[in-house]
């Protein structure tokens, strides 16, 4: 396998031509300058694919970004996956399983699959790496997760950003990190896949909560309290699932939580703010043109917490708002209406 002998892939497939898939293709394309490496994006919409091939742009998601010339696009999954040794996946989490079933017959033998997604599957409570392994029959050494404080728009503008490339096999993580290192993007490797994925999933739920507080005109004390207790909640869940506390204090935990909870570019933060301002969930969903994973994942996170016996007060409160069982006015008082305990518990 090429990742064992250290060779870089000649062709990389990126599945999903939305905001993050397109930006990640740019990262790969910029990192491949001066090499023969080709990046090919799979998109569902013919008009998006045409814009990328004819004008090197994806105006639907990244209106002012020019894409490198080594990126092409196609709606034909078999052509995209043919001979691709590295396959990057960036589609909405709740659609992944169904799509993998259609992609599986076209996957190249020995391909390594990378998840860019930050969602938890409803009903199974599985992380995206678990869904990938199950549906494609892959072993952990061929499944990688990339996660961190990575707002696509800022990276598309080439603003310096760090991230985490996680895989049970550090050699595979290093192989992937080596092909996504343009001057403006620095990946660190990590073997703690659970911690990295849980950090990315939970920060979306916490950002919804911060957004709701912001929409109710609460200030920075409240936001800092939610972020900090959110990190404690995230860490508890990750530890219960076998993740490491250090991962949650790194880029994929604290780093992503801070970026998402403070940025107006975040879709989860924005969705939360709209809920706080009094819009119904249907109204928020109608206004969102891009994926806010926390809206659906929150319920799965609540279920997972209950399954492994971890207290998840912030997640539970967000789910109650999303399910119409708690008004946004009652969220603030509820966040504090708990039994007194030590900060470390
Ligand atoms: N945008 C970011 O800044 C960012 C950064 C890091 C991680 N992520 C994660 O990446 C994943 C993808 O997010 P995004 O920002 O690219 O979302 P997006 O909404 O911008 O794009 C989603 C893509 O998936 C396609 N898609 C939507 N519904 C589909 C369906 N039912 N079947 C097949 N394809 C479908 C869309 O056509 C689009 O190409 C999410 O899990 C998100 O949390 C996003
Ligand atoms: O826009 P969001 O809320 O999906 O956040 C994007 C990235 O995950 C931030 O790291």
UniProtKB/TrEMBL annotation:
Query: Where along the chain is the active site annotated?
Result: 203 (proton acceptor)
Q: In which pathway does it act?
A: Membrane lipid metabolism; glycerophospholipid metabolism
Q: Which organism does this record belong to?
A: Arthrobacter cryoconiti
Q: Which GO terms describe its molecular function?
A: glycerol-3-phosphate dehydrogenase [NAD(P)+] activity
Q: What is its EC number?
A: 1.1.1.94
**Catalytic activity reported:** sn-glycerol 3-phosphate + NAD(+) = dihydroxyacetone phosphate + NADH + H(+); sn-glycerol 3-phosphate + NADP(+) = dihydroxyacetone phosphate + NADPH + H(+)
Protein name as catalogued = Glycerol-3-phosphate dehydrogenase [NAD(P)+]
Keywords from the UniProt entry? Cytoplasm, Lipid biosynthesis, Lipid metabolism, NAD, NADP, Nucleotide-binding, Oxidoreductase, Phospholipid biosynthesis, Phospholipid metabolism
Q: Which InterPro entries match?
A: 6-PGluconate_DH-like_C_sf, 6PGD_dom2, G3P_DH_NAD-dep, G3P_DH_NAD-dep_C, G3P_DH_NAD-dep_N, NAD(P)-bd_dom_sf
Q: Where is the Glycerol-3-phosphate dehydrogenase NAD-dependent N-terminal domain?
A: 11-172
Family from the record: Belongs to the NAD-dependent glycerol-3-phosphate dehydrogenase family.
* Pfam families in the cross-refs: NAD_Gly3P_dh_C, NAD_Gly3P_dh_N
Compartments (UniProt record): Cytoplasm
């Amino acid at each position: 396998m090429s990742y064992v002998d250290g060779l870089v892939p000649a062709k990389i497939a990126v599945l999903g031509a939305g905001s993050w898939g397109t930006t990640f293709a740019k990262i790969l394309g910029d990192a491949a300058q001066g090499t023969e490496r080709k990046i090919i994006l799979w998109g569902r919409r013919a008009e998006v694919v045409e814009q990328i091939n004819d004008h090197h742009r994806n105006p639907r998601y990244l209106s002012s970004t020019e894409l490198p010339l080594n990126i092409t696009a196609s709606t034909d999954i078999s052509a995209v996956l043919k001979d691709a040794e590295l396959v990057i996946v960036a589609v909405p989490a709740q659609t992944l399983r169904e799509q993998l079933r259609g992609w599986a017959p076209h996957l190249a033998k020995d391909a390594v699959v990378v998840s860019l997604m930050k969602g938890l599957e409803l009903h199974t409570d599985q992380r995206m790496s678990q869904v990938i392994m199950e549906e494609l029959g892959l072993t952990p050494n061929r499944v990688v997760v990339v996660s961190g404080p990575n707002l696509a728009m800022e990276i598309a503008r080439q603003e310096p950003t760090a991230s985490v490339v996680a895989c049970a096999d550090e050699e595979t993580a290093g192989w992937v990190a080596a092909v996504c290192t343009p001057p403006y993007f620095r990946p660190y490797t990590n073997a703690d896949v659970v911690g990295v994925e849980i950090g990315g999933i939970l920060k979306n739920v916490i950002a919804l909560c911060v957004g709701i507080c912001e929409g109710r005109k609460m200030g920075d004390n409240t936001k800092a309290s939610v972020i900090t207790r959110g990190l404690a909640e995230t860490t508890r869940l990750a530890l219960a699932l076998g993740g490491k506390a250090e991962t949650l204090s790194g880029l994929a935990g604290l780093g992503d939580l801070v970026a998402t909870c403070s940025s107006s570019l975040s879709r989860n933060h924005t969705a939360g703010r709209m809920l706080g301002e009094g819009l119904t969930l249907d109204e928020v969903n109608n206004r969102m043109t891009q994926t806010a994973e926390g809206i659906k994942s929150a319920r799965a996170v609540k279920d997972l917490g209950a399954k492994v016996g971890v207290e998840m007060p912030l997640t539970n409160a967000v789910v109650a708002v999303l399910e119409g069982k708690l008004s946004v006015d009652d969220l603030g008082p509820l966040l504090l209406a708990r039994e007194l305990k030590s900060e470390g518990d």
